[in-house]
Amino acid sequence: MKKHLSILGLAVALLSGLNSFGQSNKVYPCGTYEAMEAYFESNPEARKLYEQKQEQLNKDALAYKNNQNKTLAPPIYTIPVVFHVLHQGGAENLPDADMISALQWVNDDFAKAHGDASLTAAPFSSLYINSEIKLMLAKKDPAGNCTNGIIRHVDAKTNWSQSSALSGAYWNYTWDPTKYLNIYVVGNIVPQGTVTGGGIIVGYTYKPGTWPSGDPHDAIVYRFNFLQNAQARSLTHEVGHWLNLSHTWGNTNAPGVACGDDGCADTPDTKRKFHGVPIQFIW
């Protein structure tokens, strides 16, 4: 899987999603690293296990790249998706069409099928190709019953607290994360501490290895009113993290950091602000 992501050029979609928000709005498209850091601070042993898992994943990706049969077409990975809509009867109880449309946006980003692909910046354009990864709404639930992949829950946790969500009780709707990508659609994400200064978090997830395999935290949490049209590219962004992509400038959301990279050879080392376009490339 990492091999396909390494040639995806998904940075295009990630940056496009970030560029659609202004800093004056106090909108923070991604809270992934803050959520991960909060967990690691409360559980230092988890950080060690995460780093070990990341090291193993990198070794596996390199071995796959070296051993792959280049005469064969790459496989297409299909990921079953379930949306868990947490609501209290308000606007956060989105119609199915919004989630179906959002998933199509994600798939088009992964397939380089959007009309703006030609506008990709020069350092990325030749490397942005079809990832051969497709997300589809689940057709069977964990018990084998038919489903449309969109499940609604009347639940006050639609006002989602990141700090409270460190406990397992917040994730009681998660289907087996080794078989499904779970996306929690909520009305609001209450940040941990003062990380956003009172701003809006669009979504967050945890990268592979943060939690043990099969843990219910292995899911994406996403604010309901950023699923329409091009705003769904922030969902593309979170799916990228869920599949183990870092930000192109490294494992942080902090502005003005030193040049970093995402661990994939398809993008140059990058230094950037949290909002806006990359401000420096190091080749």
What value does the Rg take, in angstroms?
18 Å
Structural class: alpha/beta
**From the structure provided, what is the oligomeric state, counting identical versus distinct chains?**
single chain
Distance between the termini: 26 Å
SSE sequence, one letter per element: HHEHHEHHEEEEEEEHEE
Keywords:
283 residues, 28% helix, 19% strand, seven-stranded mixed β-sheet, disordered N terminus, alpha/beta
Structure description:
- Strand 10 and strand 11 form a beta hairpin.
- By secondary structure, this protein is α/β, with parallel strands linked by helices.
- It is built from 7 helices and 11 strands.
- Strands 1, 2, 3, 4, 6, 8 and 9 form a 7-stranded mixed β-sheet that branches. A two-stranded parallel sheet has the order 5-7.
- The protein is globular and about 50 Å long.
Tell me briefly what this model is.
It contains seven helices and eleven strands. The chain has 283 residues and is α/β, with parallel strands linked by helices.
